[in-house]
Amino acid sequence: HLSWQLVAAIGRVESDHGRAGGNSLNGQGVARPGIFGVALDGKHGTSRIADTDAGQYDADDTWDRAVGPMQFIPSTWSVVGVDADGDGQRNPQDIDDAALATAVYLCSGEDDLGTVRGQPRLGLPL
């Protein structure tokens, strides 16, 4: 069980529904110019995550960065990313793809996210 309200709340916290950093969603729901987190280089309290996507999603071929409205780490996106809107692309900057991928990720465990008791792991990065 996963409510749309929970997915929406995550989107609000992660990127103000695609508006973080001067971004806006275009007519296809894609964040422009693109939402990119800080380099995950182990500095300033970040995890140290060396590049996993050759810069394909995060435009950084040294370190990974969280990307898109739901702030997926590229290695996670490569597993749970989906084409939710049928445009032929799995794009972490696309709010539709990112929202459905969030549901895929959150529902991959055994917790019942329809209950408060089942939600403790939600503090973990995607």
UniProtKB/TrEMBL annotation:
Descriptive protein name: CAZy families GH23 protein
Lineage: Bacteria, Bacillati, Actinomycetota, Actinomycetes, Propionibacteriales
Signal peptide location: none
Gene3D superfamilies listed in its UniProt record: 1.10.530.10
Chain ranges of the Transglycosylase SLT domain: 62-107
CDD domains hit by this protein: Slt35-like
GO BP terms: peptidoglycan catabolic process
GO molecular function, one term: peptidoglycan lytic transglycosylase activity
Transmembrane segments: none
Source superkingdom: Bacteria
